[in-house]
Amino acid sequence: MSNNRTILYITRHGQTQWNAEHRMQGHADAPLTDMGVRQATWLHDALLTVDFAAIYASSSMRAYRTAEIVRGSRNQSVIASEDLKEIGLGTWEGHLTTELEQQEPDEFFAFWNAPQLYQAHNGGETFAQVRQRVLPKVEELVNLHTGQTILLVTHAVTLKTILNDFGQRPLTHFWDPPVIHPTSLSKVVIEDGVPTIELYADVSHYQVPPSSPLLEKSAHGPRP
To answer: Is 18 annotated as a binding residue?
Structure first.
């Protein structure tokens, strides 16, 4: 194996109370549900034999708590990062998606269907601003851990931003499948400076049937 083969495992936090209630989260936070804890535990079991050089998590408690569960008995700390937080949603945070769709239909439509046109009039971040925050942090971690394997625990928009950059997917196709389900697992291998996405939102570690309602089927995909 080449010494410059860097592996990133990237996951989203487990289901939260606001996910279950169809509320937007953003920089605001909500605790993991019992199911969210189970999802994180399933991922812990799936990654039990992976030797992580470091574990990084968004500083939002839902992601940090998920990282702690996935870490399990490993003798290392979870390193919190503000740069790995979810897209800021301003005044939308804590509101039901159905409320926002009715009250701000044009902006809500743009968020989910034309992200290149989304202006964040709610006082939050645009998708471009998320890129400016997140991608330099990922580059920093890749350079810091060249030749090692690390875990990033983050959020739906943040994770899509990272993978869409590695996959050179334009913003117009930001929300293209696959859906980022809670604790779905993605894996990027960087060798000789060339990234390869080997897993994208894999849920094979879910200990439920593929038809389970645990797999979110919202028309708007995962709720940030």
So the answer is: yes
